[in-house]
Amino acid sequence: MGVLQWFVDLGASVMLPIIIFIFALILGTKVGKAFKAGLTVGIGFIGLNLVIGLLADSLGPAAQAMVDNFGFQLNTLDVGWPAASAISYGTVLGSLAIPIGIGVNVVLLLFGLTRTLNVDIWNFWHSAFVGSIVYVITGDFVLSILTMIVHLLLMYLLGDIIAVRIEKFYGYKNLTFPHGASAPSFLVALPLNWIFDRIPGFNKLEADHETIQRRFGIFGDSTVMGLIIGLVIGALAGYDVSGILQLGVQTGAVLLLMPKMVALLMEGLAPVSEAAGDFVKKRFPGRDLYIGMDSALSIGHPSVLSASLILVPVTLFLAVVLPGNTVLPFADLAVIPFLICLMVPVFRGNLIRSVIGGAIYIGVGLYIASWIAPVFTEAAKSANFDLGSANSISSLSDGAVWTTFIFGWIPDAFGYVGIILLGIIILLGLVYVNKLKPKKVKDMVE
User: Fold this and answer.
1) Is 442 exposed, middle or buried (0-12, 13-18, 19+ CB in 10 A)?
2) Is 383 exposed, middle or buried (0-12, 13-18, 19+ CB in 10 A)?
3) In angstroms, what is the C-alpha Rg of the chain?
4) Where in this chain does the record put each PTS EIIC type-2 domain (predicted)?
């Protein structure tokens, strides 16, 4: 277990290249090509993290300045996903998430109950998170493990369902994102889009990236939009002219650099994806296989980034005006792209729908993050996490995701019966999607 924890502590940018290298070799890729693929993926993740870091370092202080400028009072601090993942993996329970996640995946693949082969094992921390939450609430270790397993089943089910949309919108063939912070929003976007389609006038508004750029010329360019949004946020934060201009250029840089880092990631994954396709065709004729990856591959899309930047001030506004919310969005403002990246394909890249749908999703999420804050804080203490001067902490990832509420409430309210029943329902969903009506599900999702 100590070796496994050491491996996890290497971080995604080191751990994932090693996994990609080994996985590529298993699939029959030559050693040199496999090594270069893994190294390229690692470099891509480092570049992506640098850009996300730039976004966090620029937006975080601006958000805090906006809060201070307008005198807002919120007593629960958003400590961000790095803290949430450290808390999740910081216990014996959390360290079991990776072997359990791999084991569940292998069993489902052997029985043909999933098409998702998840190599993004770093992000099993999302399942470790709900397990840790349940343990704090109930004190039942076995129930917490069972909750992690059921959460993993849901991620594999969502991975199977969303792969079609990912290929259609992002162009990534045979890839999917069974990501704990991103995949759940897909199920929320479907009914929202159904409602949007039935609002007269609103359903005729075209606001995808290409339409915006065509109508507004240079002002519709994603980089220029990032500049403008950054200037507005800087002004609301009360920055001086120099600070406003710097923030504007930084947000513009994020929109320019992010897609390039994602392209580098895809360059590394391309040979592995091809090898996986050939491997499956030879050994499982007629069966598709999706490689489960981090949804970071999707956040470089102009529609995702543009909507996310607009949602930064919207999120802060919602945090202040929503009665009962206690969370001050801060560290995870840079994670907003991850929260909505699987909503955007459902909205067909429509910026207006993405912003409104994202605002509804995050607005509800703030209440979930407030609800989970006492448990989140206790879990942090159990993992010996340094709270600093904060008395109450939470996060947008995963604190504001609806699955956190479901997987925290059901075991507490209904115990083993509730979580087992939920697991059976999800298993039936896997059977339906992969065994009974795969074509019907594919047509519905498209």
Assistant:
1) middle
2) middle
3) 21
4) 4-434
118 bridge partner residues: 292
Which pair of structure tokens corresponds to residue 417? 């019966």
277 in a domain, yes or no?
A: no
Give the pLDDT confidence of 30-50 residue by residue, as tens digits: 888 888 888 887 887 788 778
Spatial separation of the C-alpha atoms in residues 238 and 444, rounded to whole Å: 47
Q: Which residue has the tokens 């959460």?
A: 151
Q: Does any domain span residue 348? A: yes
Q: Residue 10: helix, strand or coil by DSSP?
A: coil
Domain that holds residue 225: 51-263+297-445
Any domain includes 22: no
Instruction: Answer yes or no: are the C-beta atoms of 11 and 24 closer than 8 Å.
Output: no
Cα distances from 172 to residues 8, 57, 175, 335, 445, in angstroms, run 27, 30, 6, 21, 16
Phi, psi at 385, each rounded to 5°: -80, 135
Q: How far is residue 1's CA from residue 159's CA, in Å, rounded to a whole number?
A: 28
> What are 215-253's pLDDT values in tens digits?
656 655 667 777 887 888 888 888 889 988 998 898 888
